[in-house]
Design brief:
By secondary structure, the chain is α+β, with helices and mostly antiparallel strands. 33% of the residues lie in helices and 15% in strands. The longest helix has 19 residues. The structure holds zinc ion.
């Protein structure tokens, strides 16, 4: 067995994966069998080697995700993909209920049968999201920022 430090492309989550060999990893990755435990993305690759020191000490101090922007000549194909993603997110949000900062609480209530199950979206910190995933509650990061509905007027 061999352990690889892996990183997901969408959000840069780092995690470890065990494989029989380097070829086994490549084969599983090809078939989309390797997914990020935090966001389920199958766009994963081997992470650049972290300095040994960083792993021992404050491994918890992860770099917070920063909203990224792009400018300059962006290939049209990529613009189209991003535009399609944005449209898909907008479609998904139409059938989802905004719960704002109550997201973690309401996700738990649904999971434990204390509330009617429906699609919800809202705000959660990275720690909230991690805690939910650890409890076996499926949460998914949205690719684009969402303005709280009550701030739109
Ligand atoms: Zn991830």
């Amino acid at each position: 067995m061999i352990v690889f430090d892996l990183v997901c492309a969408p959000l840069g989550h780092r995690f470890e994966g065990w494989f029989a060999s380097s070829d086994d990893f490549a084969a599983q990755q090809d078939r989309g069998l390797v997914s990020c435990p935090q966001c389920d993305s199958t766009q994963v690759s081997k992470a650049p080697m972290a300095p040994a020191v960083a792993r021992k000490g404050n491994q918890r101090s992860e770099t917070p995700a920063v909203p990224a922007v792009m400018s300059g000549p962006v290939p049209q194909e990529i613009q189209q993909v991003i535009a399609r993603l944005a449209t898909m997110q907008a479609e998904a949000l139409k059938v989802s209920t905004w719960v704002g900062a109550d997201f973690a609480e309401q996700s738990r209530e649904m999971h434990y049968g204390e509330r009617e199950v429906e699609t919800i979206h809202g705000q959660a910190t990275l720690d909230d999201a991690k805690a939910l995933l650890e409890e076996g509650i499926a949460v998914m990061p949205l690719p684009f920022p969402v303005a709280p509905p009550d701030e739109l007027n």
